[in-house]
Amino acid sequence: MKKHLLSAGDLTRDDAELVLATAAEMRALADRPIKKLPALRGRTVVNMFFEDSTRTRMSFEAAAKRLSADVINFAAKGSSLSKGESLKDTALTLEAMGADAVVVRHWASGAPHNLANAGWSTSSVVNAGDGTHEHPTQALLDAFTMTRHLGDLDGRRIAIVGDVLHSRVARSNALLLQTLGAEVTLVAPPTLFPLGVETWGVQTSYDLDAVLPKADAVMMLRVQRERMNASYFPSVREYSRRYGLDARRMGALQDHTIVMHPGPMIRGMEITADVADSERSVIVEQVTNGVAVRMAVLYLLLGGSEPAVSTSSTNEGDEENNA
């Protein structure tokens, strides 16, 4: 892998498969008594979040700590940034603290790229979501979840449904899943497709019912009303009727098809409670898999270039042999 993870589009197929293979080994630790590895002992990971996301921040924090890294959580609210400090000065401060990796979530698209490419810092930068642009580790954990249920993704049909316009998850998934050989269809109202979506290399549809029977995985997206300053659909009820996943639509799915959601969910709008809690749903599993994937990303950026976590490294006696 390269020094930074800024975009799902930066990953070659070999890169992506290396992350997924490493994540599979990390995931095996989740169900065992001793979950920590010494792989990043002495390294420092900074979670720098300019935008609230408890789920993503906790996932990265858990991942770093399970690799024995030191973790610093930096929240923009109440920090020197609120007093006018620039992103550059903050980066230089983190550098002085000895940060080896900086996990950045920012409301402005491109902020992690600026941090990585402006020469302010020598740390590895991981994009944990920038504006409406990308969220590459979410795409990796989604792909990892799919492979656990569907196997190889070559030729698999993945439907991503909902607010594509404001979704960094949709963009990163569209890029990564195609790299892994899947066929991606984005489904949304015309008002919730971004300009230039035709350049993404995916299929698009306004008709959810036409797409569902062929899908191997269906990923529902949250309607991001906090990013909307206009009326993109007539009403919540109308959106749910046209683009919500309910029990009736579940009946159109193939027997093996899984249901996904990056969270947080708006139950009753894009997905009904019975579907979210059904056996087809892998939404809770996505959270568990997120820690394993982020462990893999941090390990590969800071630790090594090959999967190096043996399945025997689950007791303290073996840990030092796997450092």
TrEMBL record:
Pathway: Pyrimidine metabolism; UMP biosynthesis via de novo pathway; (S)-dihydroorotate from bicarbonate: step 2/3
Domain Aspartate/ornithine carbamoyltransferase Asp/Orn-binding: 155-301
All copies of domain Aspartate/ornithine carbamoyltransferase carbamoyl-P binding, residue ranges: 3-147
GO MF entry, a single one: aspartate carbamoyltransferase activity
Enzyme class: transferase
Key words, A-Z: Pyrimidine biosynthesis, Transferase
One Gene Ontology cellular component annotation held by this UniProt entry: cytosol
Subunit structure: Heterododecamer (2C3:3R2) of six catalytic PyrB chains organized as two trimers (C3), and six regulatory PyrI chains organized as three dimers (R2).
Name of the protein in its database record: Aspartate carbamoyltransferase
